[in-house]
User: Fold this.
Amino acid sequence: MHQDSIYTIALKYGADNTHYGITYNKLLTYLKSKNIKIDHDFQRYFHVWFYENFYVAKIYPRIKNFEWRDDSLSEKVISQCDDDKAIITGSAHQAYLEYEELKQAYKSSKQASIIAISSIIIAIIIGLTQILISIN
Assistant:
């Protein structure tokens, strides 16, 4: 069974809470409740990813201008926004919806393949049965 990535889970959580918003710290708590651990090395990257995909007015423009890449936007500055409400961005929400549609299409395709194979097997059995009956 396919397991969703940490990003997909985060986007789903954000999409489900579009009207209320989420905070970075609430997201971390939610991920921990799902037994998802974020190690220290991954944390900075995930931290920046969150603010690229969730809008917080006082930091979003700086994140989008890539200021974090030249260290002018320190971890301390980013962390000051961790309890501020963030709303999933339109592009992140669209990407999540497209992922969900693709996942549903894959599931439907798999079901259609099973039905098609079953139909072929039934047709072969009926055909062989008719041949055996006509021989006798």
Remarks:
- The CA atoms of residues 65 and 130 lie 72 Å apart.
- The longest helix spans residues 90-135.
- The helical segments are 6-16, 24-33, 40-53, 60-64, 75-79, 90-135.
